[in-house]
Amino acid sequence: MKKNEMKRIYIDYFVNNGHKEIKNSSLIPDNDPSALYTMAGMHPLTPYLLGEEHPLGQRLVNVQKCIRTCDIEEVGDDCHVTLLEMLGNWSLGDYFKEKSIEFSFKFLVDILGIPVERLAVTVFEGDANFPKDSESYNAWLSLGIKKENIYSYGKKENWWGLGYGGPCGTDTEIFYDNFKPKCSNECGPACSCGKYVEIWNNVFMEYNQVGDNSYESLSQKNVDTGMGFERIYAIVNNKSNLYETDLFSDAIKKLELLSGKNYEDNLKGFRIIVDHIRAAVFILGDENLVVPSNTEQGYILRRLIRRSLRFLKKIECSEDSIVILSKVTIDNYKDEYPLLEIKRDFIVKSLEEESRLFNKTLTKGLKEFNKMTLDCNGYLDSSLSFKLYDTFGFPIEMTMELCMENNITVSIEEFNKRFEEHQDKSRLGAEKKFSGGMGNNDLNTIKLHTATHLLQQALRQVLGRDICQKGSNITSERLRFDFSFDRKLTEEEIFRVESLVNNQINLKLDINYENMTVSEAMEKGAIGLFGDKYEDIIKVYSIGDFSCEICGGPHVNNTSELGKFKIIKEESSSSGVRRIKAILE
Ligand code: SER
What we know:
Distance between the termini: 58 Å
Bound molecules: serine
CATH topology of the largest domain: BirA Bifunctional Protein, domain 2
Oligomer: single chain
CATH superfamily of the largest domain: Bira Bifunctional Protein, Domain 2
Strand content: 15-25%
Radius of gyration: 25 Å
Number of domains: 4
CATH class of the largest domain: Alpha Beta
CATH architecture of the largest domain: 2-Layer Sandwich
Structural class: alpha+beta
Largest sheet: 9 strands, mixed
Shape: globular
Number of helices: 19
C-alpha cells in the first residue's frame, strides 16, 4: 500500500464515523513558549481540549507532522524517528473510552486486516489517586482481545500528559506483537526487547494538571489518540522495521551509492543520516521560518544537520551528499507537502550553507577531539567540551556521543555552567524544552493573549493598516509581538499605542467569538493571514467594536480583567520587522 493511500483510508474511516478532517499544522506551535516543536497531533488542539468550542465540532481527525526531540538519541533502532506523522482522532466532550476503543479496534482489524492475535493492549491499573480503568479493560475483552493480551500498568506506562501542566489522563495503548519469543517471564508491552511495538495511544483526557501533583477535572471528557504513521505503515506493508518502507528506501539506496557501503553493515549510521535529513527538510520546509542557529528551534535543526554530517563523514561521503539526500526526501514527500517543492531552493541553500560552515571546522575539530582525549584518563573537562562547541561548532550532544563511543565521561552540568558564564542562555532554553511541553493556559497567559489582540489593532490604528503580524510568543510573564514595519517607533507612537490599549481595558469591553467561513471573516474585516492556513469554518474573536481577529482562543471574557498594559521594549527583530515586548501590571 502507498503512503497517501494509507493516510486516506485512515481519514475516510473516521470521516465516515462523523469526524471532520482538520489541517496539518505547522511544526512550530503558535503561541506556545513551553515547547519548541509540535510534538503530538493534540498539541495545536490544546485550547479545545481545555474546553474552547471547536468550529468544526466535537469529532476531529487528521495527519499531523510532529518533531519528537526526545527521540533523537533513540534513532538508529527499528522503530524511532525524529519526524513522525501522527494519525490522530479526537472526541472533544463527545464519545469516550468504549467507543474510542471500538473505533481503533475496528480500524486495525476490519479495515487494515491485522489479525486479533497480533494485538496486545495495556490499561491503567489504578493507584492511590486514580481508579483502575475497568471500562477500557472490559471494552477490549468484549471486542475479542484475550485476557492474557491485556496488560495492566501504573502511571509510568498508562498515563499521558505533559508532566507539568495541561490536559491529561489515563491511556490505553495498542501494541503489535511481532511474535518474537518473550525475552523473559516478565516480558510484556512495557519491555523494550522489541517483541511489542507500540502503534496507537488512546488518551482519555479528563483532567487538567495545574501543579506538580495537582489535577482538576476538566469540564468535558475528551479522547486524544495518536498512531505513529511510520510504524503502522511498516506493519501494513509487511516490513520488519520502518526504515525498510518506501519512506526511507530511496534515500538508503542513494546513500549506498554515495558511500559505496552496504546499509546492512552500517545500520545505525545510515538510519541516523536519512532520519535526520528527513527531519531537517521538513523543518526548513515548514510554513514558519526556521534556520540553523544556536538558539531554540534553530539549535535543534543545527544539531540534526551537524549530526548527519558527522555520520556522513564517518562513511566517507562527499560534502554534497546531504543536499543530494535532501532532494530525495523532497521528491518523496512533495505531493503530500507541496511547500517542500515551493521551498526547495531555500532548503537546499540552507543545508549547503550549514554544511559549508560546519565542514570548515569538522575535520579540525575531530582532530582536536582525538588530541584532547589521548591522555584524558577517561574524563573530558568542560573547558574542552566548551572549546569544541565554541571554536569548532560541536553541539554538546555530539561531543557526548563521541565521548560515549570512546568510553569517556563528559559532564553536561559542567558544560552548562560554563555556558551560562558565557551568557548564551538560549541554547539551554532549547534543551529544557526538548521533552516538549504544552501550551501554557494559565490565566496570565490568556490575559496576555487578549492584550496581544488589542496591541495589534492599536498598532494598525497608530502606524497604518498595512502592518501585519510576523510572530507572536506569549509566556505567563510577557507578550512578544513581531510585526512588519521598517523603522523604530517614536516615543510618541509608543505612548499612543499603550494609551489606546489601556483605553479599551478601561472601557470594560466584552470578548466574544463567532464561527464563520473565511470569506465571511474577510467581509467582516477580521485580521488574519487568509492563506491556505485556515479550516473551512473558523473562529473570529471580537473585542467590543475595537478588534476583530481570526483566532482559536482562549481569551478572557472582558477587557477589565487585564490590568494595566505597558510596553517594556521596542526593537528590531529582523530586516523590516519590529518587535514589541509588553506586560500587564
Ligand atoms: N497525545 C498522545 C501521544 O502523543 C496521543 O496522541 O501519544
